[in-house]
Amino acid sequence: MTTLSPRQIVENLDSFIVGQTDAKKAVAVALRNRWRSHKLPDEMRDDVIPKNILMIGSTGVGKTEIARRLAKLVQAPFIKVEATKFTEVGYVGRDVESIIRDLVQTAVRMVRKQKTEEVKDKAAQNAVERLLDILVPEPKRSQNPLGKLFGNTEAEQAPAEVDETKKPGREFVRKRLEAGKMEDQVIELEVADHAKPMVGMFSGSSLEGMGDNLQDMVSSLIPKRMRKRKVTVAVARKILEQEEAEKLIDMEEVSEAAVELAERSGIVFLDEIDKVAVKGSSSGPDVSREGVQRDILPIVEGSTVMTKYGPVKTDYILFIAAGAFHTAKPSDLIPELQGRFPIRVELKSLLKADFEKILTEPKNALIKQYKALLETEGLALDFKDEAIERIAELAEVVNEQSEDIGARRLHTLLEKLLEEISFEAPDMVADGKTEIVIDAAYVDERLKEIAKNRDLSQFVL
């Protein structure tokens, strides 16, 4: 669990996302409260449930980006799902309980990675011994077929002292391995042939969980098939280290720790929640929308979901829902679901000043990305401040005149602006041109007519 203070969380998010301070603060406080609740006495801790968050804002203002960056920041199981992927029980589509199954799977990966790190040194030692077995094989014992037939075992017991004679050779190869002198040598390695998962065989409704269990049962009954691969010593070392680490890890312990981690620290980001909101009474293709809300409700309220790693209680999982709510309103969600998202945060539409910051300030800002892409061709782009200001201004104007798609408008503008340069770049460099200056005049030349012509901008931008 992250021990960052709310201010540190916001500062970290600020380096990637411009503005939206209210949303960042709400997320930071929710994470810190999760940490605080773990410090409470046992009798009080069980009564403190996380306060779920509902983010409201048009597309492209940073809702998903906050979730994506949060996933990298927090040391907790995190999953982002689209509400539109799920259907009411009885319809073809994903069952909402698969959200929790996926969350637990994420927790298992995290715990397994942690356990692998703990046994890394021991696994590396074991992998070296197995490599030496391949590189310096034991001499084959000669067997007398007649002796074996009549029960004469003397021939099998004879070469017991061979270990001493081969030991110097083994130690010589060990030193060469440690010195890295054999990394490119090709050897033949026997590895387990992992069967391809039966994707899609059980993809509907609650059969999905049954499919997972059936797959596990079948794979445990069928013995592992082995196949031979020719690989370098460097690749073989990695494969063997992984196999040895798996042998050293107790999967029962991993499963128990993962379930507890998902229950106490799990975070679910539920995107496009507005797409399952129903305005008034509906029928036809929208018939299952309210059903999806009803199915999501028990998970958000707190219930027990069966997974292949054991039952998982959802009472203390933090849910962050987000939606544009263009046509629907938060009040169009069923009242019980509204009540489960007590913290409402409205993300503001982006203005010219925001667009300027988005273009230049974040660590991997759009201008920096395009410069780096064309530098690979040997072409340097020089964006003048007036050009950046003009692009930001056009983004605001086009968003006002047509659909407001937030920061995504900058992608379409920059692609159109640099289309000719991107196409001609290799030829320009070949002709000796190594720098191009982008100023306000160039921006106007490439974009002004399209931005001015409202009908055309709707199709092009």
Produce a short descriptive summary.
The chain has 461 residues and is of the alpha/beta class. It has helices spanning 6-14, 21-38, 42-45, 63-73, 98-118, 120-135, 145-149, 154-157, 162-178, 207-221, 233-248, 251-265, 289-301, 335-339, 352-360, 366-375, 385-401, 408-417, 419-430, 440-452, 454-460, and strands at 53-56, 78-82, 186-193, 225-232, 267-271, 304-307, 310-313, 318-323, 343-346, 380-383, 435-438. The chain has 21 helices and eleven strands.
What percent of the residues sit in helical stretches (DSSP H or I)?
40-55%
Number of helices: 21
Global mean pLDDT: 80
| Rg over alpha carbons | 30 Å
Instruction: Report the major sheet.
Output: 5 strands, parallel
Silhouette:
globular
* Low-pLDDT ranges: 158-162, 199-205
Category from helices, strands and their pairing: alpha/beta
Q: Classify the beta-strand content into a percent band.
A: 5-15%
